[in-house]
Write a structure and sequence with these properties.
Elements: H1 2-23, E1 27-33, E2 38-41, H2 43-49, H3 53-56, H4 67-71, H5 74-85, E3 87-95, E4 101-112, E5 118-127, H6 129-151, E6 155-160, E7 166-170, H7 187-191, H8 197-210, E8 214-221, E9 227-238, E10 244-253, H9 255-329, H10 335-359, E11 368-371, H11 372-387, E12 391-397, E13 403-406, H12 408-424, E14 430-441, H13 443-448, E15 454-463, H14 470-475, H15 493-503, E16 507-513, E17 517-527, E18 553-557, H16 561-573, E19 577-581, H17 584-592, E20 599-603, H18 612-622, E21 628-632, H19 636-640, E22 649-653, H20 658-672
Parallel strand pairs: 12-14, 18-19, 18-20, 20-21, 21-22
Antiparallel strand pairs: 1-2, 1-5, 3-4, 4-5, 6-7, 6-10, 8-9, 9-10, 11-13, 13-17, 14-15, 15-17, 16-17
This protein binds adenosine-5'-diphosphate and magnesium ion.
């Protein structure tokens, strides 16, 4: 009975122990014998490993090891260590039934009988995979953060929630001098310029109150006394309750950027001033350039102007000489002609002087009210005489013309100059239109002309000549700009016209197309007031040619009509037969004809393409010994190359007297007829 009692009690104890063992459901409790066969496999082991106790009893416990551990005989090793030291504990990867690994934490102890003989082993272990993953992830994230921090070129720091203490995390920036200090409480005084402290306190107070990031640029005073600009940014770290636990921040040196910004600001501020200085300097330079161009041109043009004046002076002195001669001869019938000849040349010399003065803008304008149409009408005679018969002039004048307030001689000069330009653009002759019209410029049309709106008289001269390309148009108002050869163009016409028109409150417009002609329009502001009397009409009288008994025939080639007339007069009066040609081509035609010609007197500078030298050379080809007298307003050598002159060729420079001319002509004719 007692034996049966004992057995029952034992079963009860065993069942109770089993219950206790199985209740540790989160822990695997596994017992094995010395051979490694499983003798106990609790409910927790079933749960963690996936095998049931029925499956595992008597099986080798080694299946719970990973392939690597089996290979390394981990079981045998652990058993050995346990026997030697009573047990092992630790963490390692084990395998589940599914083959999946899990992180196990636990201990192995040795089972012994009463005598201390080893019976087997007990393992108690838990699944710590979750914890292991979390700590792995944390370590990884810490490593990443560390890498990130060390990659930063800024100073990184942490500040306590109340901003009192600062701890440098990493410092390569401007505040690097305190890298070694663990935590500083006087960081504000150390890192922030005294002048910026108040600003920083404000920013901190605001950021703390709003729990928002702080951003501020402040100066910092370095140990060596230099000042750098620092940009600081800090963000609050909040706990789960939303309270600030700490601040993290960066500081970067933005000195260069601030300096650049400062420079830019200064630059912008002074830009206008500098532009003004520069453009003033530019203006001075331009003015200098203009002046030097002018001087160069003046040099070039002295010859041309001397030529013009010499022509006029010759006409005056020859006229006076003839006058004297006639008075001596008591032939008073046509002395008026010589007077007028001298007078008109004198007035043209005056006009030339005015043109020069107008160019230099030093002339005083004496504006008087004038009706443009009347002025045009009064000028027509002079214009047509000046232009010659190959130019057909048409006029279109207003029926009820307005008056303008201008300097009359200037305006006449302007008109004449426009007509001469038109003629020069039509070497073969052609039509010329002169018009005067009343126009009211409003809004756009006034803006297009760059002139205030209002009433204007438009004086226009239109030709069907060569026209101008854009490059020429751009320059025509420049003083001395001319496309004509020296002696023919002074380049002063349009610049004078421009100066005059602008001084009179008007505007000049040029419309020109190469090959289609040119229109130049002068807009002169309307004058409202008392209407002036009609401009006096001026006329020039023809200078009649003289004929005389022939003691020789002289061909006179001279483009200047007054001079030609005078030469003819003097030589004819002296008894020679005189042939005339106004330009080279006609002279050569005469020289090639069988007309008797004993002497050629030619001007050197001729209009129309050929000069006097070329005419003489052509003449010598058909009449080899023909004596030639060149007339020139230039220095003799420059004009025909003195020294290179062939026999029987001589030079007479202007101005000269009638007697001188006669003497030279007689001398040359004597060479030809030594009898
Ligand atoms: P100049 O007549 O002495 O050359 P201007 O100032 O009167 O000087 O004219 C300057 C230049 O403008 C001329 O050389 C010529 O090239 C050009 N020009 C002026 N008027 C005309 C025109 N009606 N047709 C073609 N070109 C012209
Ligand atoms: Mg001209």
């Amino acid at each position: 009975t007692s034996h049966i009692e004992l057995q029952r009690t034992m079963r009860q104890v065993e069942a109770r122990n089993r219950q206790i063992i199985d209740s540790a459901s989160d822990y695997a409790i596994v017992a094995s014998d010395l051979q490694g066969r499983v003798t106990l496999w609790n409910a927790g082991a079933e749960h963690i490993f996936g095998w049931t106790e029925a499956e595992m009893l008597g099986q080798n416990v080694e299946v719970i090891y990973t392939a690597d551990d089996i290979q390394a005989q981990r079981l045998r090793h652990n058993q050995g260590v346990s026997i030697a030291s009573g047990g092992v504990s630790g963490e390692r990867w084990l395998a589940r039934r599914s083959g999946e690994r899990f992180w196990a934490s636990g201990a192995m102890t040795v089972l012994r009988d009463e005598d201390g003989a080893v019976l087997g082993f007990v393992k108690v272990l838990g699944d710590r995979t979750q914890e292991r993953r979390a700590s792995d992830a944390l370590a990884h994230s810490e490593r990443r953060l560390g890498a990130l921090v060390s990659a930063s070129s800024q100073s990184l720091y942490a500040v306590t929630a109340d901003w009192r203490e600062m701890r440098q995390i990493l410092s390569t920036g401007p505040v690097a001098q305190d890298e070694s200090l663990p935590a500083v409480t006087d960081w504000r005084e150390r890192y922030v310029h005294p002048d910026d402290l108040a600003l920083l306190e404000q920013a901190i107070a605001r950021a703390m109150a709003q729990r928002l990031p702080l951003e501020l640029e402040h100066r910092t005073l370095l140990a060596d006394g230099s000042v750098r600009w620092v940009q600081m940014r800090a963000v609050p770290l909040l706990d789960s309750a939303g309270e600030i636990t700490e601040w993290f921040g960066t500081a970067s040196d933005v000195t260069e950027r601030r300096q650049a910004e400062e420079q830019l600001r200064e630059l912008t501020l002074t830009l206008e001033e500098r532009v003004q200085t520069r453009s003033a300097a530019l203006q001075v330079a331009e003015e200098r350039l203009r002046q030097s161009q002018k001087m160069e041109a003046v040099g070039q043009l002295t010859g041309g102007l001397a030529h013009d004046f010499n022509n006029l002076l010759t006409a005056i002195s020859v006229g006076l000489e003839l006058l004297e001669l006639r008075i001596d001869q008591r032939r008073y019938d046509d002395i008026g002609r010589y007077l007028e000849m001298a007078q008109s040349s004198a007035s043209r010399a005056t006009a030339l002087t005015q043109r020069l003065l107008a160019f230099s803008r030093r002339q005083t304008l004496a504006p008087t009210p004038v009706v443009a149409d009347a002025m045009v009408r009064g000028m027509l005679d002079i214009i047509s005489r000046t232009l010659g018969p190959s130019i057909a002039i048409s006029t279109q004048l207003a029926s009820d013309p307005w008056a303008v307030l201008v300097d009359v001689p200037q305006m006449e000069n302007a008109l004449l100059n426009l007509c001469i330009n038109a003629r020069d653009a039509m070497p073969e002759g052609g039509p010329l239109w002169i018009s005067a019209a009343n126009v009211s410029l409003r809004g756009e049309s006034a803006a297009a002309l760059d002139t205030p709106p209002g009433d204007y008289v438009r004086l226009a001269v239109k030709d069907a000549g060569t026209g101008m390309d854009a490059a020429v148009i751009e320059k025509v108002f420049e003083p001395f700009f001319t496309t004509k050869p020296i002696g023919q163009g002074t380049g002063l016409g349009l610049s004078m016209i421009y100066g005059f028109t602008r001084q009179s409150g008007g505007q000049v417009r040029i419309d020109s197309q190469v090959g289609h002609g040119t229109t130049v329009e002068l807009y002169l502001p309307r004058f409202i007031g008392e209407t002036p009397a009609d401009a006096a009409e001026e006329t020039l009288q023809d200078l009649p040619a003289c004929s005389a008994p022939s003691v020789g025939t002289i061909l006179v080639v001279e483009d200047e009509e007054a001079i030609r007339a005078l030469l003819t007069e003097v030589l004819g009066g002296a008894g020679y037969r005189v042939l005339q040609a106004p330009e080279g081509g006609q002279a050569i035609d005469l020289l090639r004809s069988d007309e008797t010609i004993d002497l050629l007197i030619t001007d050197v500078g001729l209009t129309g393409g050929l000069n006097g030298r070329q005419v003489a050379d052509a003449g010598r080809q058909v009449r080899p010994a023909l004596p030639v007298l060149f007339i020139t307003g230039y220095a003799a050598s420059a004009a025909v190359g003195a020294g290179q002159l062939e026999d029987g060729m001589e030079v007479l420079t202007k101005p000269f007297t009638a007697a001188e001319l006669e003497r030279r002509a007689r001398a040359l004719l004597a060479i030809r007829n030594p009898s």
